[in-house]
Design a protein that fits this description.
Elements: H1 12-21, H2 27-42, H3 52-68, H4 77-88, H5 97-105, H6 126-140
């Protein structure tokens, strides 16, 4: 995150970007390493043998492909995270309207969201809720955190 101020370990780029480059990242590793690529690029850090712009494009496509594999109606915090990140980082063209509709559909009467199966009888999850709110704010272009 602060690679512009503190040098990164020699193998950082490989550990962070190689899985995306080779299409072997998935889940939270994919979304978090995708975000790391933006931090790396935006802080002007050296990526040695990696084209960070290419890594970002590959990561976005992989996130969208992973999201398309979710069964209709499937939802959890990672679903909301994928959607929010694609929207936040400029990949609106990869986000399907159905994904937004699914997030809205999974909102609980309380206004919160849950991650089914994460906890026994869980009805609300603050992590899932903030990711869902973030995705919807990005989609509506009202997110104040640009």
């Amino acid at each position: 995150m602060y690679c512009d101020l503190y040098p990164v370990k020699a193998d950082f780029e490989k550990e962070t970007f190689e899985g995306i480059k080779n299409g072997k990242e998935f889940g939270y590793d994919l979304t978090h390493k995708f975000w790391s690529a933006f931090l790396f690029r935006d802080n002007g850090c050296s990526a040695n043998d990696y084209d960070v712009g290419k890594i970002i494009d590959l990561g976005a496509k992989q996130i969208a492909a992973e999201q398309r594999k979710i069964k209709e109606g499937g939802f959890d915090d990672l679903y909301a995270e994928r959607t929010a990140m694609l929207l936040r980082f400029g990949f609106q063209n990869l986000v399907k309207d159905e994904w937004i509709e699914n997030i809205v559909k999974n909102q609980k009467p309380s206004g919160a969201w849950a991650t089914p199966g994460l906890y026994w009888n869980e009805t609300e999850n603050p992590h899932t809720t903030i990711l869902s709110v973030w995705a919807l704010a990005q989609y509506s272009k009202t997110c104040p955190f640009q």
